[in-house]
């Protein structure tokens, strides 16, 4: 079968493209409808996979375990296509959960289009600070209503099953005025491994989360708040989480100075290894619940 396909492939490529006699593995995979990208995006059986997509100075993270998929945020408006191509290549047919951490453009920009194509079984968000009034957020709310997507407000302490993994909500704890502090904070646990997602939470939210949920914070990896801004990732908070890795979703040449030099020094002084989307592209985490593997695109 493989030989036939190979021959067909060779014949195909030769007739149509005048390419070399020996096909590349990419071409062989394409005969079976598989591209290299699709193979790279598979989740090995029994593992949890996290991909922090490279969407510039914005957030879009996909967490998969078993048949279950969670999307946290959807980047900027222009990032929807990138999210689609990832989900399509990964063979994701539906989203079980979507978390909208908060309503800033760099987190909900692509969300309306994502929800139209992949209406999730449940959308979790934070509406604790005020009714969002931007055009993007109003359009998002309208889409949620039109698509009849079930929505719940994030309640800290709530646990959702994510295949064999577990999603625990840890924030926001209060009705913050500041929309960054109102970010949904959550932790994904699989076996002995834990991963903390901070949205754009800043110092006040970190302090409150630490006081209320300190014993649940220790994790192997943290996606730090607010793209590596200096107003997030207090050193006491970092010491409490005590991660091995910190993911910084900062865009190359961004005008905000992310990641801030002070933060990089704090991470370094805590012995935390930084993973930066501006330098390393898409960042992938694979774990079977014990071992931990980090892969980067660049
Ligand atoms: Zn942001």
Features:
single chain; 298 residues; alpha/beta; Metallo-beta-lactamase, Chain A; 2 domains; eight-stranded mixed beta sheet; seven-stranded mixed beta sheet; 15 strands; binds zinc ion
Structural class: alpha/beta
Q: What share of the residues lie within helices?
A: 25-40%
**List of distinct ligands in this structure:** zinc ion
Which strand-content bin applies to the residues?
A: 15-25%
Oligomer: single chain
Overall spatial form = globular
Tally of helical segments: 11
Q: What is the total domain count? A: 2
Tally the beta strands. 15
**Major sheet: arrangement of strands:** 6-5-4-3-2-1-14-15
Distance between the termini: 35 Å
What is the CATH topology assignment of the largest domain?
Metallo-beta-lactamase, Chain A
H/E series: HHHEEEHEHHEHEEEEEHEHEHEHEE
Main beta sheet, described? 8 strands, mixed
Average per-residue pLDDT, rounded, comes to 88
- State the CATH class of the largest domain: Alpha Beta
CATH architecture of the largest domain: 4-Layer Sandwich
Tell me the Rg in angstroms: 20 Å
* Uncertain stretches of 5 or more adjacent residues: 1-20
Characterise this structure:
The protein is α/β, with parallel strands linked by helices and 298 residues long. It folds into 2 domains: 1-34, no CATH class; 44-296, Ribonuclease Z/Hydroxyacylglutathione hydrolase-like (Metallo-beta-lactamase, Chain A, 4-Layer Sandwich). The protein is 31% helix and 23% strand. It contains 11 helices and 15 strands. It has an 8-stranded mixed sheet, with no helix packed on it. Strands 7-8-9-10-11-12-13 form a 7-stranded mixed sheet. Mean pLDDT is 88; it is low at 1-20. The protein binds zinc ion (ZN).
């Amino acid at each position: 079968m493989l030989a036939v396909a190979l021959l067909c492939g060779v014949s195909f490529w030769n007739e149509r493209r005048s390419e070399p006699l020996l096909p590349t593995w990419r071409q062989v995979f394409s005969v079976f409808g598989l591209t290299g990208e699709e193979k790279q995006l598979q989740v090995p059986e029994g593992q949890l996979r996290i991909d922090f997509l490279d969407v510039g100075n914005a957030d879009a993270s996909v967490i998969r375990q078993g048949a279950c998929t969670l999307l946290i945020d959807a980047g900027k408006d222009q990032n929807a296509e990138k999210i689609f191509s990832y989900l399509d290549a990964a063979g994701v047919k539906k989203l079980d959960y979507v978390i909208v951490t908060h309503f800033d453009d760099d987190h909900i920009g692509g969300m309306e289009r994502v929800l139209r194509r992949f209406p999730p079984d449940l959308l979790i968000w934070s509406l604790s600070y005020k009714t969002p009034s931007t055009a993007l957020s109003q359009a998002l709310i309208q889409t949620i209503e039109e698509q009849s997507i079930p929505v719940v407000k994030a309640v800290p302490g709530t646990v959702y099953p994510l295949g064999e993994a577990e999603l625990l909500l840890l924030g926001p704890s209060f009705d913050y005025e500041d929309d960054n502090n109102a970010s949904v904070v959550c932790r994904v646990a699989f076996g002995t491994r834990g991963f903390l997602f901070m949205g754009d939470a800043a110092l006040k939210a970190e302090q409150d989360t630490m006081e209320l949920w300190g014993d649940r914070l220790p994790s192997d990896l943290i996606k730090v708040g607010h793209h590596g801004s200096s107003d997030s990732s207090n050193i006491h908070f970092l010491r409490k989480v005590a991660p091995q890795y910190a993911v910084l979703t900062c865009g190359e040449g961004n005008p905000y100075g992310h990641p801030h030099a002070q933060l990089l020094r704090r991470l370094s002084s805590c012995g935390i290894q930084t993973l930066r989307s501006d330098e390393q592209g898409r960042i992938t985490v694979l774990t079977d619940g014990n071992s931990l593997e980090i892969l980067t695109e660049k």
